Amino acid sequence: NGWRWFQWENIAIGSADGNIVELCCLGRDITELKEVKHSIAAEALKWAEKRSHDILDSLEVAYCEVDLSGKITLCNQYVAQLLGYNRDEFIGRDYRHFFTKRKIVVQAVAEMRRSGRSQRLSPLEILGRNGGIIYGDFSFAPLKDNNGSMVGVRVSGRDITARKRAEDALQNACRRQDEIIDFLPDATFVIDNNGIVVAWNKAIEEVSGVSRDNMLGKGNYEYALPFYGEHRPTLIDLVLMPEAEFAKHRKRYESIEWKGDKLFGRIYAPGAYNGTGAYLWAIAAKLYDAAGNIVGAIETIRDITERKRYEERLKYLSLHDQLTGLHNRAYFENELHRLNKSREYPITILVADVDNLKLFNDTMGHNTGDKLLKYCTAVLRRSLRASDILARVGGDEFAAIIPRTGEKDGKEIALRISSQLAHYNHKKRKGQPFLSISLGLATAEDASKPLLETVKEADDRMYRNKFHRGATASYQVIASLLAMLGERDFVTEGHARRLEELCLNIGKKIDLSQEKLANLSLLAQVHDLGKVGIPDRILFKDCLLDNSEMEIMRQHCDKGYRIALSSADLSETAELILKHHEHWDGNGYPMGIKGEDIPIECRILAIVDAYDAMTSDRPYRKAMSSKIAIAELKRCAGTQFDPELLEVFLSIIS
């Protein structure tokens, strides 16, 4: 009736001498007991398998076993739920179908089977039941039987979707940060705590001449090399330095200061723009992570070369006269204050004033006046030492501080200036104005005499000098202006002589006084003096003047009037110069007076000047015949000319 299980116990029975005499065999039927033990073992195995499954199910790790064909034979609840399946649906599926990059998985498993070593792939994309992507960190290990033969693959993995998305978000944030940094118009770069460059934008590529690819990942102050020609700390490093070390390097900067948590600095970088050099203004600050830990630093650089030049220009202009390039009054006064208690005594102060500058400005324009100031500057510079302090302290006034120079040496300097002045006036080119300078000198032998007092003394002496030589200087200026008018070829040869002769003939014919004859003689010579201030393009225009040009031409009466007033020799003739273009009928200029309100000298000159002009060549026409000129004079009798004086003139020339 089938098999039974027995347990046998064999007992040897021996004699007194130790020999076995019989064998007792006892048999027990243990079939029921054996069945009980087998049932217990099966239960134990079942419990062990359940316990193993419970352990796998309790893990927050995806686990499954697949056979060599790729079919899933075992899995824990976590992996099934992760992908949206229940366990029964998951078992039996091909595990490879859950991976988006199957080729990589197949290659990894093949390598595992070849080498016998587990393989790890991370991150791997797996597809959930709804098509969603899940990222995992997976290991593939051999599955062996009791004999050590590989019978499948154990696949385990962790869900790293949240971590992957956080990493992606961080990378996106970093990429956006890099894009923002790259977009910044100012040159910008970032280093980490180890001094490694992690960002280098386009603007800094231009300033440094180094591309991003050649700088990212570099350390050891490599970023300083294109700017300063050496590996050394820059502003970005100083923000990360301890205070003691910071103090060693701050002296490299023209200016450096903390404003809150930002460090500002200005420096000249000779290597910028491939060696062109540039003044740079930079801001550096530390960078922190979310926990408040320092993770690096950022530096932004701006090229302020043009601004620096502008500042230097402003500084220069604040201490210099723009026209002459000399120091200005502010600088002069600062130097007076500095030298007041110095060891530079004796100190001589020189004050120089350009004579009749206003006259040149009013009559010939400010361009001529400016040239005169420049000529004066050149004369003074050639007469002084390079170490002397020469300044333009007013419109027409110059002053010099001459250290270590006594009164005797100061007078020698004044003689040198006079010599240079005479040389200029002798050698001046055609069209250059006559230069006259009044000088004053005073000396402070020691610090007991304030330099401001010495300046006032020199100024007083200059004005006394100007007063004593005023008439001579004015005469020289007038003569210079007349010479300039002649040099411009406006006064034709014999014009003034002919006018003077004819005017005096008329004056004598009508019995003018000696005083009026003298005025008439001088008026004939200088009536056109104001034309030194009229541009050549108008004076020598080869056709009739238009209205605007005529307005400019008419200004010569007023210009001549002002010139004459500046000279004692011409002051009585000034009014005659002003009115010599007035007409008998009141339609002249500049005042529009008429008849006998016009001085008789002017009425005589008007007739003679018109006749000489018509019978002489002009830029815009050839000379008329005397007959035609006389006919024109008669036509204008009673309108432009005094008719009685015209009759006298006609009787003389006939």
Give a quick summary of the entry.
The protein has 26 helices and 17 strands. The chain has 654 residues and is of the alpha+beta class.
Topology, element by element:
Elements: E1 6-14, E2 20-29, H1 31-58, E3 62-67, E4 72-75, H2 77-83, H3 87-90, H4 102-115, E5 119-127, E6 133-144, E7 150-159, H5 161-183, E8 187-192, E9 197-200, H6 202-208, H7 225-228, H8 235-238, H9 243-249, E10 255-259, E11 262-269, H10 272-275, E12 278-288, E13 294-303, H11 305-319, H12 329-339, E14 347-354, H13 357-364, H14 366-383, E15 389-392, E16 397-402, H15 407-427, E17 437-444, H16 451-468, H17 470-487, H18 495-509, H19 514-526, H20 536-539, H21 547-554, H22 556-565, H23 574-579, H24 600-614, H25 626-635, H26 643-653
Helix pairs in contact: 13-14, 13-22, 14-15, 18-19, 18-24, 18-26, 19-24, 24-25
List keywords for this structure.
654 residues; alpha+beta; Beta-Lactamase; Alpha-Beta Plaits; 5-stranded antiparallel β-sheet; 26 helices; elongated
